[in-house]
Amino acid sequence: MTDMTIETALSEELHRIAPDIGLEDIDRTQDLREKFDIDSMDFLTLVTALAYATGGVSPYSVSQARNDWALHLGRSPGRQLELAERAQANALKVTSCAASALTGQTTVEPFTARAHDHRFAHAAWANPPFNLWKQGFLAVQDWWEHATDTMRGLDPQDAERTRFQLRQMLDLMSPSNFA
């Protein structure tokens, strides 16, 4: 649903519950309960508008999985240290790869894309500065994959949902989207 149709639907709902008031007539400082008959507001209409806005995905379900993962990670100092060590190791690998490339040495790339990931298949991704950009992204992706592994007490389904959400966010930031 586009923004215009959402605005139209909300305007129609407003007109239904308060026919004598338009959106421009609302005084934001006044208590809205005086102008609206809140009891007549159709709950199903509001839920429908929310479903259109979120694509039918429950906002609670999305946030609950991520919150469960974050709370378990926050209570796991050993896991936090493990992730800090992995971040440091990944940064060292990328830095070493960059230093080798700057000195003209041939180097083996420390991170490789998955077999089904064809975003970096073009030969230009093997040349500086694109190879460093690619390696940095793959290092971050590697870290997040390990960060979202299941841990003691975490529901495996919540771990998988969080991994999926973060993978989608990472895919948005992939260098192949900007090059």
From TrEMBL:
Domain named Poly-beta-hydroxybutyrate polymerase N-terminal is located at: 48-79, 117-179
InterPro entries the record matches: PhaC_N (IPR010941), PHBC_N (IPR022211)
- Organism's domain of life? Bacteria
Q: GO:BP terms for this protein?
A: poly-hydroxybutyrate biosynthetic process
| Name listed for the protein in its UniProt record | Poly-beta-hydroxybutyrate polymerase N terminal
Provide the organism lineage as a comma list.
Answer: Bacteria, Pseudomonadati, Pseudomonadota, Alphaproteobacteria, Rhodobacterales
